[in-house]
Amino acid sequence: MARLTAFALSLTFVAATAGAQSPPVTDKAELEKLRGAWGTVRSTRDGKESAPEQGAKLVFDGDLVHVHERGRKEPVPMKINVGMGRLSVRPHDADPIGPPARTETAFRLTYGIYKVEGDELTLVLQSAFSIPKGFTDEKQVMWVLRREAARK
User: Which domains does the chain have, with CATH numbers?
Assistant: First the structure.
């Protein structure tokens, strides 16, 4: 009975997330645009500061993004899929035993849209069940980051 319940729940999750329209294929050129370290400029939700992202840094390296959170010693690795201005994020754990590391930032929300304008990256993240409709913080997190200078 427990297996049947778990199976039914997983089917429900798959059906619910199927309409979320994640990027079909990762665009390598888009990954290159994101490559490097980005520091938080601001993060808001419904016009108010979104605390978990404050002081956070994202480091993009291929299809991985390392989320460096304030007060956390080790970054949280996340697998990223980008294309057509959309992105999806999921936990990436090198240790398949036990639960994957979790982030408290909006990256735990899994689906979003993004744009890169010069050295500024804007992410809008909502939930596992829908993709944001625009670059606003209404009922979703809008996270603005600035590219950090490369170390020499």
Answer: 2-147 (2.40.128)
